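>> received
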Amino acid sequence: MELVYEGKAKRVYAEGDILLLEFKDELTAFDGAKRDSAPGKGALAASLSALLFAYLRGRGVESHFIGQRGPNLLEVRRAQALPLEVIVRFRAYGSYLKRMPLVEPLRPFKKPLVELHLKDDRLHDPLILPQDAIEAGLVDEAELGQITDVAVRAGELLRDLYRRAGCDFIDVKFEFGRVGGRLVLIDEISGDTFRVLCGGEHLDKEYYRKTGDVRGLLERYGKLLEYTRLVLEAQ
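>> returned
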């Protein structure tokens, strides 16, 4: 296998048109400013991503996901990644509250709120306007509409899934890429990319951001994986 990319959370290997995502046993926050070793974290994130990609695929949401090859390895289709992060918010939280302090924390939105961010750690992934993405040639207007529709659909499916586990799904970050001319979900779907409260407790990376407690986060990721499996098995 050829190593083609290494980021904060994953290594990417190539096998022809197939890529292998190796999830690392590392935790990062604040654009990599905070970093810790987290043995077992890679397998937890990879397994949860595999479950959620398969769940979405069964409901018509396409992604690059093919299957899980090992504890911390996902097999995916090679994609041309867009330098965008698409955030779907169901409640007021995080950076939203910094720019809109008139809204009380955790207030549910009347409809899902969709944000575009330029994916660039050096610029701290700034919020951009939809027209910015079009003017920069990242997407055209029709593709932007497609991305928004898919992101909202996938976010609502995840919210419904965790609602059945008695949890409150707060927000989720998606990434998209082109596979064979089609725009599909890529990267991962895990506690690193969404926020969910179960019994008022974060079972996502927000816990690590707030506490720096690696062991506590791994325990919560384990609970999140268990809850997800139980709900999917009960369907």
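>> The radius of gyration is 17 Å.
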